[in-house]
């Protein structure tokens, strides 16, 4: 169950980054079923799990990543970022 939650979170992040880069309004539902709208382009991203940093780079949003979690080491560029 937890891996499904992490997958949904990662997928939402990738969608949010790709849509907000074009300035579109993105509407999602959170885990509680509430409607969430993202209207402002994403300017900074912080990942709280090592694999999420990899997904951000894979989605092409690496330059927006400003902090990562401990043990994030791929791609090598994340090693220079602050750890939260």
Write out key terms for the chains shown.
84 residues, alpha+beta, two-stranded antiparallel sheet, two-stranded parallel ribbon, 2 helices, 4 strands, globular
Topology readout:
Blueprint: H1 2-20, E1 26-29, E2 35-38, E3 45-46, H2 50-58, E4 65-67
Parallel strand pairs: 3-4
Antiparallel strand pairs: 1-2
**Which descriptor suits the 3D outline?**
globular
Task: Give the uncertain stretches in residue-range form.
Answer: none
**Roughly what percent helix?**
25-40%
Q: What percentage of amino acids are in beta strands?
A: 15-25%
- The DSSP helix count reads 2
Strand order of the largest sheet: 1-2
Oligomer: single chain
Query: Separation of termini?
Result: 25 Å
* Whole-number mean pLDDT: 81
Question: How many strands in all?
Answer: 4
Radius of gyration, in angstroms, nearest whole number: 13 Å
The major β-sheet equals: 2 strands, antiparallel
Structural class computed from helices and strand pairing = alpha+beta
Order of helices and strands: HEEEHE
């Amino acid at each position: 169950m937890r891996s499904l939650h992490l997958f949904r979170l990662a997928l939402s992040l990738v969608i949010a980054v790709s849509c907000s880069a074009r300035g579109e309004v993105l509407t999602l539902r959170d885990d509680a079923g509430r409607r969430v709208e993202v209207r402002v382009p994403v300017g900074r991203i912080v990942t709280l799990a090592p694999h999420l940093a990899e997904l951000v780079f894979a989605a092409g949003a690496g330059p927006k990543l400003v902090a990562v979690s401990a043990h994030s080491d791929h791609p090598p560029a994340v090693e220079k970022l602050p750890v939260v």
